Amino acid sequence: MAVLTQEPPGTTATAPARRRSRRRGRSAPPGPWTWVAVAVVVLFVVLPILWMLDSSFKGPGSIGTTDIVPHPLSTYNYVTAFGGNGSGDTSGRYILNSVIVAVCTTGLVLILGTLAGYALGRLPMRGKLLLLTVLLMISVFPAIAVIAPLFLIMKSINWLNSYQALILPYTAFNLPFAIWILRNYLMGIPREMEETGRIDGASPLRTLWSIILPQALPGLFTAGIFTFTACWTEFLMALSFNTDNNMRTIPVGLAQFGGQYSVPYGLYFATSCVAAIPIAVLVLVFRKSVVSGLTSGAVKG
After folding, report:
1. How many Å apart are CA 240 and CA 136, to the nearest integer?
2. Burial grade of 38 (CB within 10 A; 0-12, 13-18, 19 or more)
3. How many domains does one find in the chain?
4. Which residue has the higher pLDDT, 189 or 163?
5. How far is CA 13 from the centre of its chain?
6. Dihedral angle at the C-alpha atoms of 214, 215, 219, 223, nearest 10 degrees?
7. Are residues 149 and 269 in the same domain?
8. Is residue 192 packed enough to be buried (19+ CB in 10 Å), middle (13-18) or exposed (0-12)?
9. 3 state SS for 6-42
């Protein structure tokens, strides 16, 4: 006589379901076409950079040749660009101006953006939606529409050909984007940490400095890198407000290298390689913080 045994629930009967759930949880490995697409994108991005770096070490008569590796290696372009090309247009001065403007603007944007983002994201206040809408409109406003009024204002207060002529407009145009990023990131920080500081008697500024800011470093890095990059590459305002050769930034200085009948490609390549170093270093060093800040800003708010 056969004896039927009933297995306890939750053992063998659910094993197939568990295996199916594990299969569904695993991500499918990328197919060959995925790797082909990745390779195409990488080549599309990397090849122009390699070509620029390779051409910067070629002599004036070798630029445009098909040599993959320059032979012989020449530093003529770098010496000419940063040692002076005979007319006083030195790339070193342009890069110094860009560094001063970008660093000062980034500092102002981070200070003001942190205070405004904290107020809009954590403090009770009226009209938040209206303020955020206005900030969003300002962030997409075309800069060319205000060039003429700003030029007249700068001229009337004798600010043309000065660092502040670029720092203040850059701050105004980059601040809304930084406020949005920092506000969304600050909203993702648990309120219990902030309430602990208030219980201990800390003021809102003390709470922000000692408790909130250490947790918001990825958001600060993200806003800072985007602001620095925007200031480093801006062209229109720098061209309009600073016409003195000693006050030009690197984008305008590059545009002034060429003449009516000649294009010094070697100077372009050498200066562009050096100008790309600060951005590359910032992105490589803070890449994880930038990804974290952007992800938080995309899902919070």
Report:
1. 25
2. exposed
3. 2
4. 163
5. 54
6. -20
7. yes
8. exposed
9. CCCCCCHHHHHHHHHHHHHHCCCCCCHHHHHHHHHHH
